[in-house]
Amino acid sequence: MSGNRTRYRILFLTPQRPNRTRQVAAIRNWNLIAHLAQRHEIDLLTFGEPVSDERTRPGGPDEPWRTIVTVPAPRRTWQRRLRVLTLSGRADMADRLWSPPFVARLRQLLREGEYDIVQGEGIEMARYLLLVRTALGERPAPLLVFDDHNAEYVLQRRAAATDVREVRHWPRAVYSVFQWQRLRAFERRALRECDLTVCVSEADAAALQALAPERPLVVAPNGVDTGYYARARVADRATPRFDLAFSGTLDYRPNIDAVGWFVEEVWPRLRARRPGRSLRLALIGRNPAPEVTRLVLRDGVVVTGSVADDRPYFAGATVYILPMRYGGGVRLKLLNALAMGCAVVATRAGCEGVPVRDDEHLLLADDAEAFAAAAERLLDDADLRARLGAAGRAMVERDYDWGTIVARLEGGYEAAFAIRDSPQAADRPLDRLESEPDAPPGSAASDEAHAISPEDS
């Protein structure tokens, strides 16, 4: 990274407290903040538990932020949610973490701090970003950065297309049909009013750029801490042994769909291929929905719930599965599994945004019979498992280091400031954003369509 970049004061707005190892959005937030804090001053406004007290305190010795302000997470009543769904016209997700106390603390921080950048993490924070200019009145506004963790309207559209296939899921499909249209309108507004939108994959960038072609975007994918996610770090620890494992937040609709499809369609086929041999499947993750907990009624299926450390489960699984049928962004669980040297079977939807190749980094399979055959192949071939695991680990070490990703984000800041502040920049296209060092395949810098583009509206 260039050594002469500007030092910024940045206020982060996050939907939960950043965490190094737990929950995808929290892990992303932690790593972005931790690397940015090496060169910039970071304050954090975030939500705590619903029963927690509102408080402000300095960052601790192991925390990367200068100051953290925590507001209790709001509890939505079913009456409020019903009003939003039927009367407001607003996207449900945009209302999920709406909190007047959070608004009050945001206004206070903006009055007291002279921030260069305010960055909102995820769709729930976009609504707060839209208040910043109004809150400041005549004062100069900071650069507004919207980190859109998924192209949410695309995710809901895919959910509708998946759920409509089964009669019992038609109510969810109807919900998604309405929500994807509202989300598309809300994301378009957020893109148009913010100075920079951060996307986690090229596919998301293409979908979001279509909503506001004139607005600046930069791709900063999810990364992985390859020092933490390494088999050597758990070599001296007991590892739970399972033939197959899946990990993820188990009340998240794409994950519920993935494990349900696998257990109902793939698991019986795989067991039939191995008569007389016991198989064990671990579904690992917090907040398992009732649809997930019921899967323990199937022979060999274990639902662990939340675990303090998922690395022993990666290390103890013979095969890691990623049977996603829809979703968005870059699968952090895939990057973690590859970093742990796991042998992986995934659908193409499961590895969207990561430039993996079939039979080089993992095995790809999109239908139930092919998925069962690929899993059986890995279960029976230790050499193949070792070859894929080594190649996957090498790829994430090379291409998904958080330091490289944050350097690209900092380049996005500088480009967005230039577009906003320079009259000349508004009259000409900006060169494609290049990261330092060279961007990996599949990054923003490798695709002309996802360059930072000029503001001309």
TrEMBL record:
Q: Which stretches does the entry tag as region Disordered?
A: 426-457
InterPro entries (UniProt xref)? Glyco_trans_4-like_N
Which UniProt keywords are present, listed alphabetically? Transferase
Q: What is this protein called?
A: Glycosyl transferase, group 1 family protein
The organism's lineage is: Bacteria, Pseudomonadati, Thermomicrobiota, Thermomicrobia, Thermomicrobiales
UniProt xrefs under SUPFAM superfamilies = UDP-Glycosyltransferase/glycogen phosphorylase
One GO MF term attached to the UniProt entry: glycosyltransferase activity
Q: Which CDD domains match?
A: GT4_PimA-like (cd03801)
Domain Glycosyltransferase subfamily 4-like N-terminal: start-end pairs? 30-226
Record bears the keyword Transferase: yes
**Per UniProt, what is one Pfam family of this protein?**
Glyco_transf_4
Report the source organism. Answer: uncultured Thermomicrobiales bacterium
